User: Fold this.
Amino acid sequence: MQVTTGTKGRFITVEGGEGAGKSTVIAKLYEELQARGVDVLLTREPGGIDIAEKIREIILNPAHTQMDERTEALLYAAARRQHLAEKVLPALQAGKIVLCDRFIDSSLAYQGHARGLGIEAVYEINRFAVGDCMPELTLFFDIRPEVGLARIDKARGREVNRLDLEGIRFHQLVREGYQLVMEKDPDRFVVIDAEQPMEQVYESVLRVLLARL
Ligand code: TYD
Assistant:
C-alpha cells in the first residue's frame, strides 16, 4: 500500500494498545525532531481539529454505552476524513513530516477485529475516508494488555474513556487485530517493544526514525 500520492511530505503513524506509552514517547520525539530543525507536525486521532474533537467527544463519552458498533466505526472514519482533509494533507503538501498518534490501523484492530465487524469491512469504509493516503511507516508499540492496563491504573488523573472500560479480553483482541493487520502489510510496520522502560522505548523509536528520514 503506497503513500500520499502527489505530496512531498512524509506520513508516519504510531499505533498500539492502551498504556503502551505512545503519546508520551512521541511528544518527546516531536521536541527532539524540532530541535534538530525538522519541519514536523504532531497530531492525533480521533481529534486534532475542532470537528474531529467533537466527534471524539461523542465516541469516547463513557455515558454512550448504547452506541452501536457500526456507528462507532463510521464515526471514527468520519473524524479521520475531516482530520486528513483539514490538517494532515495540507501539511504533507507543504512538505512536512506528519507524526500521527493512531490512524486507520486503530480502526482495523479495535472495530474490525476486537468489536468483530471484520477487518476487511472496516478497511472498506476507511478506504472511502482516506482514499490513497496511507502512511509510509507505522510504529507499532507492542505491549501485553495486562502490562499496559496496569500502567494506566497507576497513572491516576489520566482521562478514562469508554474504550478503557472494556475488559482484558477486548484488549487481547485488539493486540491480535494489530498482529493480523501487520501480517497483511509487513513492510509498512516496525514493531517497538513497549514493555521496555520508557527511555529505551524512546531511544528505539528515535533510532528507527532517524534511519528513515
Ligand atoms: P485516547 O485517549 O486517545 O487513547 P490512547 O492514549 O490509548 O491513544 O483514546 C482513543 C481511543 O479510541 C483508544 O481507546 C483507541 C480508540 N480508537 C478506536 O477504537 N478506533 C480508532 O480508529 C481510533 C483512532 C481510536
Observations:
- Residues 1-5 have pLDDT under 50 and may be disordered.
- Residues 18, 23, 45-46, 60, 76, 102, 106-107, 110-111, 161, 163 surround thymidine-5'-diphosphate (CB under 6 Å).
